[in-house]
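On clarity, I found the account of how folds are encoded harder to follow than it need be. Since the whole study asks how a given chain folds, the encoding of that fold should be made plain. The format is easy to grasp once an entry is in front of the reader. For illustration, here is how one protein appears when written out as sequence plus structure tokens.
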Amino acid sequence: MRAAVLHEIGQDKLEVLDDVEAIGFGPGRVRIRIHATGLCHSDLSAMSGVLPQPAPFVPGHEGAGEILEVGEGVTRVKPGDRVVVCWLPACGACPACKRGQTELCLAGFMNAGTPNFRRASGDVFGMAGTGTFAEEVVVDAGCAVPIPDDVPYDIAALIGCGVTTGLGAALNTADMEAGSSVAVIGCGGVGISAIQGARLRGAAEIVAVDPVASRREAALNFGATQAVSPEELAGAKQLATGGEGFDYVFEVVGRAATARTAYENTRRGGTLVVVGAGALDDFLQLNMFELFFDEKRILPSMYGGGDVLRSYERTIALWRAGRIDLEGLITHRVPLAEINEALDQMRTGTALRTCIEI
């Protein structure tokens, strides 16, 4: 079986190998033939060591495919079913799940420490317990979420992470009011999805902030009312809010420096939504006086901040109704053999989302 493998954390290229075996099939597990997978910035962060991930590993966690085989006790899916891979499945029994905060369930994270693949040289892990840069993957049945037949695999793959994260940040975490002013810092696939969520909620002003000109242009097509470089943000704030600051600011980069910028551009009493996944040693500094005096809400948004299965269903319904554009998010397509080209597209910002066709 073919899969793209990172041998050591810190390497910037993957090696596509044909001697990888998907392992772990048994009771409660399913085998999935991956047809399409998106490249998410979190994959790059895991490769560089920003996000903790055992190596060697197969990146990829935003995938969709077909059920090939189900283990004993699996009843929700059957061979032939089309599914999206959910890298953060809810166990339904832990305290977080019982409170209705299924996005905080740790069951999925526990999977990351168990190898998903094997080569003659030893075990290979899967990104976030999945590893969708492979022809096949074996995962817990809860990671395989059925999708309707009219949802193409490439669209379903996006729903598996980036779209759910960005839309959910606006619709679930921020719970925005119509007529609000919004800034989105970082306009890749997740940021563009947050922009679409803000538009759905009736935001009056949506300012997209990104250093890459092509991403700024794309943001305008997806609903932003202005698109500026980071150096132009102060002027945009003045124009959109009279200098007061935005009602909602979304940080979709995952760095303390941009989170600090986002905080400073949020109005007093406004809301900063932290969407980007950052490093363990990257600290956001706030002094106690401003924290008290400005009364700004700081809301982290984990995987869209809501029930994942409900979010998938909502996204499909919105896409079917033409309320959100998912096809337009896929700006590049490459076969698995050219995965390193996709990595370059992500690093340079030339792609919103690259679909890897497997």
The chain has a mean pLDDT of 96. The longest strand covers residues 29-38.
